[in-house]
Amino acid sequence: MALSWQILPLPKSARITLALLTLLLAGCTAAPKTFRLSTGSSSGYYYRLGQEIASSAEDTVALDIAVQDSQGSLDNLQQLLDGDIDMALVQLDVAEETMKAGEVSAIAILAQEHIHLIGRQGADPSPQTSATTLLDLGGRTLAIGAPGSGIRVTAEQILGAAGLESPDGIRTNDAGFSDALDLLSQGQVDGAFYVGRLGANERLREAFAATPSLTLLSISPGLVNFLAVQNPGVYQAATIPEGIYGVSPNIPSQPLTTLTTPTVLITRPDVNPNAVRLIAWSIVATAQRYAPFYPELQAGDPSVLLRQGLFFVHPDAANVYENGDPRQAWVRYWENNSDLQAGIFLLLGTSVAGMILQYWRKQRSKHLVNRIYQRMLEVNELLADSPQEALREIEDLSQDNRLQLIVGKLPEEVYAQVQQKTQSFSDQCRSVLAQQRKEKILNTLLLLDDWQATLQTDPQAALSKLGQIKQQYRDMLLANEVDIQAYMELTELTLISVMTLAPEQRRSAELQP
């Protein structure tokens, strides 16, 4: 933001006072000497990711991070809530409820974990076919992870959404992942869940090589879309590529639909804010180091990718994504904020009046942001059942934010922060609407296929349904689910089907005695 006037040189006494104030403020928010991070098994990728975080922090901001091993996401989350550690690596779906409650918040997304469903060829109840999707395993035994594991949290979410909760839908086994693979190889269970980085688990690769009957199953697109809409940001549609776990034969033999959930670095609201800023900046400044875990960071903008889709970002981490290196933040703020300049002069002349003014403005902005985020959460409740209404509400909110900016009630930097989130949510609404339109058109084409089949076998019954089909075309046109060109093509296709059959009907009538 360009200044409209020049800053006058400060007298020597004022410069000394300003320097002392800066040192005092910096000392009040000094980061602790050691910051505790809980990860996962010492042989797993969470632990390696934690070591990379520690290395980044030491090299970039001279902050010491003690990396601790653990039992995984749920263990990490509980330790964080108990105050035993300062930050933790977790699956986002594991931490979602505590984030909504305000008990923890995210510093950064550092990876995407794919949900794997491993099965056995011939494990389907029908001996003629092998299971290919989760729904094929209804009534069978699934290993859903040990109690207290992140895998179990994810498995229970998916099974609940699919209507396969135990004991009616499936039988469950509490084996951990490694033991579950052994049971699967021995035929004692019919499937097992695993959540982790795509293609990175050596134990899974070894199991596929040692037991050729093991295979990967897909999660149906309908279930994937349902979970992605119900939990935006927490679950996202994804694909397991062909041959990622082996070739000759390819494992899997074709691309499979599934879901991902992010790996997030989280902390508590009471943790030292300066340390949070420094750690967030160390990750941004060395983002390409994390490309083996999060490939998009190799070429993408880390300030966008590290928080993409997150609703509950720690405010000090968000400040780093917006403004960069926190160690120079006060300099940028001074240069770009005329209110602060006036406040400093006022502070030098009239003690704390300028600081009170700045504090009041920050608090007002904070209340505005909280109110905006609360409204976004309310709109999110509409997304699953009424995405069109959700889109209309979020666009109204975006317009309200714009008006607040114009009248001077919302600072530019705060407006940019909330606008990025409202834009992300608008894109999510449009994606859901597009998916619904595709499903509507697909269902109509399937209805037309069924009608054409009936036209061949029972023309009279088919012709009686013709009015119903034409009305459905008109309803789709009026609801903007198809454009006028698609409407005309569907109508023309129906008429061609009727005209094609008409000569055959006459010949059949002539052949009858």
What labels would you give this structure?
single chain, 513 residues, alpha/beta, D-Maltodextrin-Binding Protein, domain 2, 10-stranded mixed sheet, 19 helices, 55% helix, flat, disordered N terminus, disordered C terminus
List the helices and strands and how they pair.
Elements: H1 12-28, E1 34-38, H2 45-61, E2 64-68, H3 73-82, E3 87-91, H4 92-100, E4 105-120, E5 141-143, H5 150-162, E6 171-173, H6 177-185, E7 191-196, H7 202-210, E8 214-217, H8 221-230, E9 236-240, E10 256-267, H9 273-285, H10 302-305, H11 315-323, H12 329-336, H13 338-350, H14 353-380, H15 387-406, H16 412-457, H17 459-464, H18 466-478, H19 484-511
Parallel strand pairs: 1-2, 1-3, 5-6, 5-7
Antiparallel strand pairs: 3-10, 4-7, 4-8, 4-10, 9-10
Helix pairs in contact: 2-9, 9-11, 13-14, 14-15, 14-16, 15-16, 16-18, 16-19, 18-19
Describe this structure in words.
This protein has 513 residues and is of the alpha/beta class. Among the domains are: 110-263, D-Maltodextrin-Binding Protein, domain 2 (3-Layer(aba) Sandwich); 435-511. It is built from 19 helices and ten strands. The chain has helices at 12-28, 45-61, 73-82, 92-100, 150-162, 177-185, 202-210, 221-230, 273-285, 302-305, 315-323, 329-336, 338-350, 353-380, 387-406, 412-457, 459-464, 466-478, 484-511, and strands at residues 34-38, 64-68, 87-91, 105-120, 141-143, 171-173, 191-196, 214-217, 236-240, 256-267. Strand 1 (34-38), helix 2 and strand 2 form a beta-alpha-beta unit. Helix 13 runs antiparallel to helix 14 (353-380). It is flat. The N and C termini lie far apart (91 Å). Residues 1-10, 12-17, 23-29, 123-129 and 509-513 have low confidence and may be disordered.
